[in-house]
Amino acid sequence: MLDGIIDIVKNQALEAISQNSDVPTNKKEAAIETTTSSIVDGIKSQLTTSNLPNLMNLFGGGSDSKAITDSIQGSVVSALSEKVGLNKDTANSIASVVIPAVISLISKKNNDSNDSFNLESLVESVAGKKGGGLLGALSSLFKK
C-alpha cells in the first residue's frame, strides 16, 4: 500500500521536476527523490489521532485541509532548498504542483470502489498490522 503511494508521489515529482527549467539537470534526480521522501514522510507524520478527521477530509476529497497541505509543502520546500540547493521559489513551485496532484490521485483511489486502496490500508501500511489500541482505533475510523 505504501509502495503505491510512493509510486504516485514519485511519478508526480518526476513530471513536475522534469518540466521545470529552473532545476539544473544535475540536480533533477536528487530533487525527485527529495520531493518524494518529503511528501511521503509528511503524510506519515500527519497520522496522529488528533489529525484523523483532517486526514479523512483531505483524502476523502474535502477541501478543508489547508493546515496539512501547508505543513507538507513547508517540509518539501525546506528539503529541496537545504538538501538539493534549489532556491525557495523553485522549490515552492515544485511543491505547489506536486502536492495537490498527489492528494487528488490518492483521493480518487480512496473514493473508487473498484480500487483496492483505502485509508485503512494506508494506516496499516504505515503503522503495521491491524490490532487493538491506537492502531485499532485509527483503522476503524478509516473503514468505508
Structural write-up:
With 144 residues, the protein is an all-alpha fold. It is 73% helix and 0% strand. It contains 7 helices and no strands. It has helices spanning 2-18, 28-45, 52-59, 66-84, 88-111, 119-127, 133-142. α1 (2-18) packs across α2, α1 crosses α5 (88-111) and α2 packs antiparallel against α4 (66-84). It is globular and about 40 Å long. It starts with a helix and ends with a helix.
Q: Key features?
A:
globular, 73% helix, single chain, 144 residues
Give the gist of this structure.
This protein is 73% helix and 0% strand. The chain is mainly alpha-helical and 144 residues long. Mean pLDDT is 82; it is low at 129-134.
Counting H and I runs of at least 4 residues, what is the number of helices?
7
SSE order: HHHHHHH
Bin the strand percentage.
Answer: under 5%
Low-confidence segments:
129-134
Oligomer: single chain
Q: Major sheet: size, sense and barrel closure?
A: none
Terminal Cα separation, in Å? 16 Å
Please give the radius of gyration in angstroms. Answer: 15 Å
Topology record:
Layout: H1 2-18, H2 28-45, H3 52-59, H4 66-84, H5 88-111, H6 119-127, H7 133-142
